[in-house]
Amino acid sequence: MRHPILAVSAAATLLAACFVSDAPAADDASVTIGVAAPLSGSSALLGEQVRAGAQEAAAALGADGPVELRPVDTACTPEGGTAAAQALVAAQVDAVIGFLCTESIETALPLLAQADIPTIDVGVRANRLTDKRAKTGNRIWRVAPRSDAEADAIAKLLIQRWRDVPYGLVDDGTIYGRGLADAVRTRMEAAGLRASTVDNYRPAEEKQFGLARRIQKTGVTNIFIAGDRQDVAVIARDAAELELKLEIYGGESLFDENSIDLPLPTGIHAVAPFWDAAATPSGSATDAAASALPGYALPAAAAVEIAVAAVRRSRQDEEPVAAVLDAQTFSTRLGEVRFDAVGDADLDVYRDYVWRGDHFAPAAEQP
Q1: Is 275's pLDDT higher than 90?
Q2: pLDDT of 180 higher than 50
Q3: Which terminus has fewer CB within 10 Å in the chain: N or C?
Q4: Over the stretch 121-145, which tens digit does the pLDDT of each residue have?
Q5: Could you tell me which of 106, 25, 33, 105 has the C-alpha nearest to residue 70?
Q6: Is the CATH number 3.40.50.2300 carried by domain 149-281+351-362?
Q7: Homologous superfamily assigned to 8-145+289-348
Q8: How much is the pTM?
Q9: Which comes out higher in pLDDT, residue 277 or 10?
């Protein structure tokens, strides 16, 4: 799972400004939403983003009736997921949003389903989470992209950009890298575009001249690299030393700040969800919301908006919240959201970004 690394101060500011009481709901107009997130351990920063986004949305929705939050720590562990679900069932929440880790959501969902509590996931991408919804009986919907959405978005973009030019695919040999490169290749070949070269490299090496020379011999200058940010920076540097000018595209892993030893050169492209980006695509009111909420705060806020709207509608129409989630379209800061037959949101969240020397900016913008 890939996570954006974002400043603590942004989440802290939201937390300070948007406090929501944990006191019991005052009346029947109140909506109580559980917020399940890792609030301790190595993923606590990301969990605080979820809580901050939930609090901001709850505060904004309070004008139409109290919205109470019940934050619980999943700790990104199976045990944490079980404990979080038990606490939320005991609190009799109307719905749950959150979850960033597969380990915790998979133990929590059966307990929440037994209590007929719907859950809107904001971070776990495993396809099986929703694909097996009918079989498991879990009450799960998802605003996070599926695990295959990244390859879909990359292939769609590259098919448009590289239809008439030779291209190559490179991966770092890891399960993630190889799987992503293979998925992109399959989709591009289905569109009639076969890679001129397919290669791989050993990650975390100080030099990648061997790979750069192999690429140079093929004559290909358009390359998709499924690998980490530092490796892509090394490959681009070594290619430049060989006077090989490459157009390089990567996936959302390029947003991971895993090292500052070697910065990315200007012009590297990354295809990633718009809430991962430091800048948002120009001219889009929907994407502009990403600049106000950091990282997982944005999908968490949208999930609260959906959950509250669904609970209120269910009370109005006297039907289950699950039926409302399956049937209705919801207006959120991510845009209009409708869930498909398995519970995945019909959102197009991936965008093309380019490195401008110190940040990623929308590729459509001029430097």
Answers
A1: no
A2: yes
A3: C
A4: 999 999 999 999 999 999 999 999 9
A5: 33
A6: yes
A7: Response regulator (3.40.50.2300)
A8: 0.87
A9: 277
